[in-house]
Amino acid sequence: MIDALSLLHGLPFLVGVGYLTYLFLWRCFLSQLTKLPGPKLAALTYWYECYYGTLYPPMSRQNQDLSEYADIVQPAQYAFKIKRLHSEYGPVVRIGPNDVSISDLDFIDTIYAPGPGHRRDKNAKHSRSLGISSSIGGSITHELHRNRREALNPFFSPQRIHRLDPDLASKAAQVENIFADARESGQVLNLSDIYFAFCNDVVHKYCFGSDPNLLGNLHLASARRNNVFSVLGSVKIMFHFNWIRKLLQRLPGGGTGAHGMMIFRRRIRAQIDEVLARDPFSDEEPSIFTHLRDSTELPAAEKSAKRLEDEAVLMTMAGTYSPMLSLMVAHYHLLSRSDIMAKLRTELGGARGPVMPRTAAELERLPYLSAIAQEAHRLTFGLTGRNTRVCPDEPILYNDKERGQTYTFPPGTSLSVSTLVIHTDESLFPDPWTFDPDRWVPSTSASDATDMRRRRSMLSFMRGPRVCIGRHLANAEIAVLLAVMARWDMELFKTDQDDVEFKHDYHVMCPKLGSKGVRVEVKDRWNA
Ligand code: HEM
């Protein structure tokens, strides 16, 4: 009897040990992925990624002097570790028990844009870390994503975005007024807050039909920018310890986890409730969310307040923070490199004429202006976290030409390409950390083939069916604001390269921790 009881008590322990033994054997010896190059520890356990993803000191640049960081624990470094692993192991590296990173430009389409008839899902573990699983970006399966995307597509064609010209012009004029006031008062401006507010106002109006005018309250813009950053700052912890999110959700007043996210979501939910409460037959301004609310194509579940809340959180967060990063990077380099600013001004010619002399589409066609935007996107790295794809129903083969080896990734393997690795590939981008728009000016020195390879390597907006839906809007915003930047002489204030360079991966790039953003003193309106 006693023996039977102690056996019963020991059963959970035995089951646990059995399960761990099975995991160990499967991950290290039995899975088809065991033949792949990579550190054994990464193959065995996600704690490897957790260590580099949440704690490890930074290695953002190959020859960086780490001693300056020796006394600080630095988080969010797995992207940099993956780059090192590729230098050590080659183009294919097993970076997790079920995760493979590939650094081959010619294989990007196989993962992200395989063409009709091939399904690519997302990895559920990765998608949950932002807590917006019922948004388009959180859709795991290929089919669910396609349905949600079809509902949104009409709002994001280039033609539709051109209709926003008046809104962009009026917001750009507001930015210029802020610059003009600062020139008079001598007040130091935080460009990161200004660009955050600009992008927020534009995307918010597109989503909900009303202008929140964050540009009119830069203190609030600063608080909101920090708030979004605190949301992003929790991404790595939520990825590895999803139970924290679940626990917080159960707490009174708990939303999805981080305090910042709770505040952010509450505000967005209020907007959604307001849209749903409005009379659909009133003469309200049509917007993305009135369109989704009134859609006859979408089933009722897709129009629930909770689902629309997730969609709106993604739309406003992605539509604000990512373009702000590219704008910050671009303006910093225009101010620190007078040669680049001079070329832009030459191209714009009469840029100091009346506010907004040209449309976004016309500006985007200027080769040097668009080269600056492209270079800013390159060094902002789009999504810096692992943007994984899973093929649910067929194995994928990879032929490593250098080693003469073919690898098979069974269905369900989580595959990704790192934007850090590709955007800093020295064969495509010599001296990759230098901001050099001339790389994108057609055929300066490179052959057409190299030029095309370089363009194909740009992953800022990703590609395939899940390519950034807001890319035309982002490029229009950036074009309009580059023209504004050219019209003002400014000096950087207590701001250096560390304030705009990729140092930490919080899903998007984060410069040095504690950075206050790009700050400037406005000197004068530029005189040609
Ligand atoms: C420079 C600015 C931007 C960058 C670098 C950027 C980058 C990206 C990337 C890499 C993705 C693909 C994510 C994935 O594979 O899951 C994406 C998706 C998305 N982006 Fe952007 N984005 C930018 C601007 C915008 C803007 C202005 C909006 C909003 C209007 C927006 C809304 C979205 C949405 C809704 C998705 C999900 C699309 C889908 O899953 O089909 N983005 N973005």
TrEMBL record:
Q: Does the keyword Oxidoreductase apply?
A: yes
Instruction: Give the residues annotated as coiled coil.
Output: none
What are the names of the required cofactors? Answer: heme
Q: Which residues bind heme?
A: C468
Q: What family classification does the UniProt entry report for this protein?
A: Belongs to the cytochrome P450 family.
Q: Which UniProt keywords apply?
A: Heme, Iron, Membrane, Metal-binding, Monooxygenase, Oxidoreductase, Transmembrane, Transmembrane helix
| Molecular function via GO | heme binding; iron ion binding; monooxygenase activity; oxidoreductase activity, acting on paired donors, with incorporation or reduction of molecular oxygen
Transmembrane parts of this sequence: 6-25
Q: What protein am I looking at?
A: Cytochrome P450
